[in-house]
Please model this.
Amino acid sequence: SQTIHQWPATLVQPVGSPLSLECTVEGTSNPNLYWYRQAAGRGLQLLFYSVGIGQISSEVPQNLSASRPQDRQFILSSKKLLLSDSGFYLCAWRTIRGRTLGYTFGSGTRLTVV
Amino acid sequence: GNSVTQMEGPVTLSEEAFLTINCTYTATGYPSLFWYVQYPGEGLQLLLKATKADDKGSNKGFEATYRKETTSFHLEKGSVQVSDSAVYFCALSGQNSGNTPLVFGKGTRLSVIA
Model:
């Protein structure tokens, strides 16, 4: 069966520090991968998505970046965090042919920048 | 482009009340439609889906019917429980979307009181 892992679950980081959030998928190959952010009390904001290794589409080019070094690994990074980067970060995946299947989401990472 | 509009909350209901959360969409052709649920502190879970006109998705007592003529996919439940308190998201996958990400509504927060 397919599973998606996200870590860490909770993170408190000072302003100006770097960030690395990791997401891995098991039980499937060549998935489409997505990073979303959800600010407190707000909806979902698509940050990045990837349809293959090394292929990244940026929806919101802020001080965040994403990379896909392996087929089932998706990493969200920042060199210097801002207070406004606080939020709930969600990774999701979908099969390339899964238009009718929707996404499967990870359990999320709660990031607080202090 | 494709878009989803859902009623903004919060919605507060007493236990055993009837629930309707409205969702309308704009898309060409025949998109696939989804409802996701997000319980406090968790990621999103697929609640139900419908992939063609007049389909009815159902799960855990929730139902939604894909209405092409009114471009709607309203979520209903006959008798809500306190455990249904969550944020509900309507989403769309375009007919010819290929790898294009899902389009989400802004979410509706539901609070059910005993």
